[in-house]
Structure prediction request, 664 residues.
Amino acid sequence: MAEHRRPTSHDVARLAGVSRSAVSRCFTPGASIADDTKAKILAAAGQLGYRTNALARNLKSRQSQLVAILASRLDTPFRARQVKHLARALIDDGFRPLLLTADQPEDLGPLLSSMLDYNLAGMIVTSDTPPAAVIDECQRLRVPVVLINRNPHPDGGDRIQLDTGAAAAIVFDMLYAAGARRFAVLSPDDRTYTVKGRVDGFRDLAFGRNLPCAVLPCDGQSYAAGRSAMTRHAAALGQCDGLFAANDLLACGALDGLRQDLGRSVPGDMALVGFDDIEQAGWAAYDLSTVRQDARTQATMAVELMRNRLQNPDAPALLKHPPLDPVPRGTT
Amino acid sequence: MAEHRRPTSHDVARLAGVSRSAVSRCFTPGASIADDTKAKILAAAGQLGYRTNALARNLKSRQSQLVAILASRLDTPFRARQVKHLARALIDDGFRPLLLTADQPEDLGPLLSSMLDYNLAGMIVTSDTPPAAVIDECQRLRVPVVLINRNPHPDGGDRIQLDTGAAAAIVFDMLYAAGARRFAVLSPDDRTYTVKGRVDGFRDLAFGRNLPCAVLPCDGQSYAAGRSAMTRHAAALGQCDGLFAANDLLACGALDGLRQDLGRSVPGDMALVGFDDIEQAGWAAYDLSTVRQDARTQATMAVELMRNRLQNPDAPALLKHPPLDPVPRGTT
DNA sequence: ATGAAAGCGCTAACAG
DNA sequence: CTGTTAGCGCTTTCAT
Prediction:
């Protein structure tokens, strides 16, 4: 009863009266094996509770099905959604997602580099700060890397990235359609690649039409940052009738700041648009107009890029844009 | 230049002029090796870009550092926080978290069971529906399983679980202190173990004091469920002055339903307490009184239990309660 | 279709 | 302290 040792292919082979190779073939999808041998083996395996040992198998094939997901700020709604879809897409495609969360960049280097010991099949990065050195090392070891909404890396690497120009245009149109003509945009100091892209794109669009646009710095991309920025920039905001917050967390903060701290009415005094379409944007207390990033499509694309790269390591790096959809709600 | 093959300990050994065992020892923490040999090896390894192959290493030691985190509804704020802390605690303790998200139980069985092929060091379950069969299999393979806020499993298995009695008491006290005497509690139909515990505990506390407590069913544990339940139970709610929502998502929904759909004032007409202390509970539009589950301590405890079990597989199953803290805000 | 043999890259006795 | 030896559990030619 106390059967601690896991049964091996050897045990199964003996019980089924075949060779270990036969057992191996039985569990290898395309291998040629007679139906009744297979049945016999399966029976024996079932009886023993045999499971192939992925470690041993991977050792031979020099590659695991392990894919690292590198994500910071996992407790943030949009990031959580991204990771959820990424994990699912990977699993559906036969991979096994390893989760690396890293909020301080310095934790990351050694960790990630120790991950590489697992012969990763790939790595997907949604972190704010992908440490360049690690990505280099992945490239060197020919581990496919897919960057989601991150700076391009010198050595290439496939990327999924929202079209910042299109994003800015959608936001601008929503605000303009709501009647706004004097704009402001909340610009986090830790601007990640696409945040910067849409903030700058938005400002340029306004300037292009000779419309004023104040760029309001705020510290970080959190709810608290959005809220406190409202008080800090109260004067500037007094001149505006259309505000773009670089993401929904900031937007929710801004909305509360505007309404509760500044006593302004939204959308009465000022229209507001966020970005990402996190769940809370749809909650009645916010009912925030925003732009939806489709995390699911994003994830599917990322896995697809990774798989392609795995098959064709030397293909040129690809850049794909997932779809973006305006979600007009009560703040415009 | 085109050095595709990863260098092996053999390569390093040759370059450094030592044996493969020496190389192995060099990368094994407690092994005895001369300082200058070690230096030589490290130099050679650095030059070649050598990394130990975890797969091979684990094959020998019959165990990986891989720990599966089984989580459903990852895009839910509290779950995301749990997973974040779990991942971090595991990594800090030298493990590698594999993320299995499963929203439909049926996906899960085969997946998890294929995970076992990786010789998991352990498994941590926060899913709503831990499939019993898989847990059984883990037990059989002597893979430590830690259940977080889940039903006890017949075969044992260590558990981290909030003290539902204490939880109910904290909530009851908050509501009672706010002057409430006629209670209601929102009871999701998919009641998970601890949700059921606190809902029932709360009701019993009220009954124990001969105070009325209406148990209001709602479908699920989401914001939408909380909100729609308010309209549906408007009549019953008219009689109440204290509502307990089994979690913050429900509570936020209830708050919006109460204020915006029913036109009731909170806390004026009725006090409200949620559970978990998700980030949104602190947002100005909600400012929700709640009870904090400390995800970080929870995670630390889980990893600790797992590690103990690993060292001592036959110790009796443990049950630990993480701390709980009332967070009084604007709804009481 | 099947079995024998030869490793994948590493570690762990065991001598020296 | 170091090298030799013997595997971990599996897959994969190569004959048969």
User: Anything to note?
Assistant: The two ends of chain A are 68 Å apart (CA to CA).
